[in-house]
Amino acid sequence: MKTAITELFNIEHPIIQGGMHYVGFAELAAAVSNAGGLGTITGLTQKTPADLANEIAKCNDMTDKPFAVNLTFLPTVASPDYPGYVKAIIEGGVKVVETAGRNPVQVLPYLKDAGIKVIHKCTSVRHSLKAQEIGCDAVSVDGFECGGHPGEDDIPNMILLPRAADELEIPFVSSGGQADARSLVASLAMGAEGMNMGTRFMCTKEAPIHQNVKDAIVAASELDTRLVMRPLRNTERVLNNKATKRVLAMEKEKGADLQFDDILPDVAGVYPKVMMDGDMDIGVWSCGMVAGLINDVPTCKELIDRIMSEADELIAQRLKGMNAA
Ligand SMILES: Cc1cc2nc3c(=O)[nH]c(=O)nc-3n(C[C@H](O)[C@H](O)[C@H](O)COP(=O)(O)O)c2cc1C
User: Fold this and answer.
1) How high is the pLDDT of residue 271?
2) Of all protein residues, whose CA lies closest to atom 10 belonging to ligand 1?
3) In this predicted structure, what is the pLDDT of residue 74?
4) Which of 36, 69, 100, 169 has CB 3.0 to 4.6 Å from 121, enough for a Cys bridge?
């Protein structure tokens, strides 16, 4: 399939794997890229720029295809060494950067000068327009359904994507709630040039995370996510587990007085224990409503091939058939 996104990123299929903390390692990024999509290494999961340089080198050994690095701009007090990470990205020959969180304007000139394409992930039309204005090449429009941080506007993709299509000039992909050929074809119909998936790619053979995590997502339905940290305006969609229940109970108890420190043990530093050790209730971890559409753990190639062939079928038979009728 040829779209503005396959052309921009020089990939075969318009399918992107979004950056995911402690999931987006070289193994997953290379598997997605080798399958014709765009895989993504999560920059900040690597503790230092030198670690990121090693992970990029590893990925370069595993694939000849383009892959991306995610740079998430966190609302933290102690800022990570972003210039160092950017240097590792440029020196590693990375072709695409997915930015997320705060406005990436501080790193954009360096990335653009190095010929790197930038896709900014955000949850509103106004932030998408800002990304376009500062010179991003594309946007990943992340709806309310998404795993991770959906923002505070709560606009689902059935509204957000056509709104983005009405306003944006640069190409965009859908993100949040995307899982299969139906997602892709619907996204294309609403004006997107491809789709970005997070939770779906966690349930692949190559995702280098504990089997318990994959099993939990397969077992979960669309009813099994919750929003935490809304009182802190740092809303995160997570799987409902014991830690989620503890956090929500604390949020209820403290009300408007809630401080980050009140929930710290359940939200900070828990990803390695969940993703690597499979300790499922140690803390909260991002998961999308799309868990309800995930029932298996294929390889990335099986997943992407299935999506593309079913998308062809959907377009050529179901939709074309209706058109003729
Ligand atoms: C476990 C997990 C960790 C994530 N970590 C990050 C991250 O570090 N940076 C980021 O920009 N997005 C992160 N995301 C968001 C994804 O890149 C993607 O935008 C989101 O998962 C899309 O929604 P979906 O899960 O419904 O496909 C994460 C998502 C999940 C599920």
Assistant:
1) 97
2) 19
3) 81
4) 100
Token pair listed for 82: 């972003």
pLDDT score for 323: 86
Same domain, residue pair 70 and 160: yes
Whether 283 lines ligand 1, by a CB cut-off of 6 Å, is no
Give 113-171 pLDDT, tens digit per residue. Answer: 999 999 999 999 999 999 999 999 999 999 999 999 999 999 999 999 999 999 999 99
Rounded to the nearest angstrom, the distance between the alpha carbon of 286 and the centre of ligand 1 is 7
Given a cut of 70, the residues of the chain with pLDDT beneath it are 76-77, 325
Angle at 96 between CA 236 and CA 27, to 5 degrees: 70
CA 98 to chain centre: 9
Amino acid at 28: L
Domain that holds residue 41: 4-208
Are residues 234 and 194 located together in one domain of the fold?
no
Residue 149 near ligand 1, beta carbon < 6 Å: no
DSSP 8-state assignment for residue 275: I
Q: CB of 266 within 8 A of CB of 281?
A: no
Q: Is the CB of 187 under 6 A from ligand 1?
A: no
Token digits of residue 91: 């020196």
Separation of 203 CA from ligand 1 center, angstroms? Answer: 13
